[in-house]
Amino acid sequence: MPVAHPFDLSGRHALVTGSGSGLGLAIARGLAKAGARIVLNGRNRAKLESAEAMLASEGITASVAAFDVTDADAVDRAIADVVREHGAIDVLVNNAAINRRQPLEKFSLAEWRELQAANLDGPFLVTRAVIPTMKAQRRGKIINICSIASDLGRPNIVAYAASKGGLKMLTRALAVELAPHNVQVNGIAPGFFRTEMNAALTSDTEFSAWVAKRTPAGRWGEPDEVAGAAVYLSSRAADYVTGHVLYVDGGFSASY
User: Fold this and answer.
1) Using alpha carbons only, what angle is made at residue 211 by residues 169 and 256, rounded to the nearest 5 degrees?
2) Residues 189-234: pLDDT tens digits?
3) Which has the closest alpha carbon to 161: 150, 170, 146, 172?
4) Is this prediction's pTM over 0.70?
5) Could you give the CA distance from residue 192 to residue 233 in angstroms, rounded to a whole number?
6) Any idea what the Cα angle at residue 75 is, between residues 46 and 50, rounded to 5°?
7) φ/ψ bin of 156: left (φ > 0), alpha (ψ from -120 to 50), beta (otherwise)
């Protein structure tokens, strides 16, 4: 009997939050191409169904779970429904996030809390909901989409950097807590990618030129280029990798 490829995700069920577009959709597509059964998540059902149809046109079967990751009751209900339907959640990718670019003194408390809720509370709530099933099956992969801003600062993203720094430490500490249960927790830290969230930046000629000059690879990343890292961290090939943050940034964080 042939031995399965170490990156083969056949038979695995993966939930990707914030996967209606951008990096989340690219990650979902990559996991599906590796054999995983995908559950798309976001708040906008119409957007998710459009993504589902797009994947179907590529021969990829996915399902939709529309819920707000910041709503604890909605998260618990949705995760219970997904587990009932699919039998398990083997891979969780916490990708849903927002950004608000402005000086810190311009932030209202409500705006600060909204950003932290999406970027840090959301991963906490969804992860908390999937842990019991992963512990029971003694198998699981949790991937948090961090950022180069988990380590590096720049003007106008202080709130975002604070949330992503917190997510990095959630990743590392939870990896230690769950390791005895054979659940691996890792992060991916993307650099500058051409996504819907970054549309204002990619259309800014001066900023795009700065990104190309500052990044050793000399360009922005394309969403599909983050998928391979997610496949690796979701696979048996990464069974002894936990508490790690994998930078997919064209060398940005390695240079100065």
Assistant:
1) 65
2) 999 999 888 888 888 899 999 999 999 999 999 999 999 999 999 9
3) 150
4) yes
5) 21
6) 15
7) left
CA–CA distance, 56 with 97 (Å, rounded to integer)? 25
- Rounded distance, CA 142 to CA 171, Å? 9
**Per-residue model confidence as pLDDT tens digits over 128-163:** 999 999 999 999 999 999 999 999 999 999 999 999
Tokens found for residue 36:
């995983």
Give the position of tokens 């807590």.
177
From CA 27, how far away is CA 19, in angstroms rounded? 8
Q: How far is residue 95's CA from residue 226's CA, in Å, rounded to a whole number?
A: 12
**What's the CA gap between 18 and 28, in Å, rounded?**
10
Q: Among residues 191, 74, 58, 157, which one has the least CA distance to residue 121?
A: 74
Query: So which residues are the catalytic ones?
Result: 160
Residues in the chain: 256
In whole angstroms, what is the distance from residue 188 CA to residue 171 CA? 10
For residues 90-100, one letter each, b for 16 or more C-beta atoms within 10 angstroms of the residue's C-beta and e for the rest, the string is bbbbbbbbbbe
Helix 122-137 and helix 72-86, axial crossing angle in degrees, nearest 10: 30
What gap in Å lies between CA 109 and CA 129, rounded to an integer?
Answer: 27
Instruction: Copy the structure tokens of residue 143.
Output: 């991937």
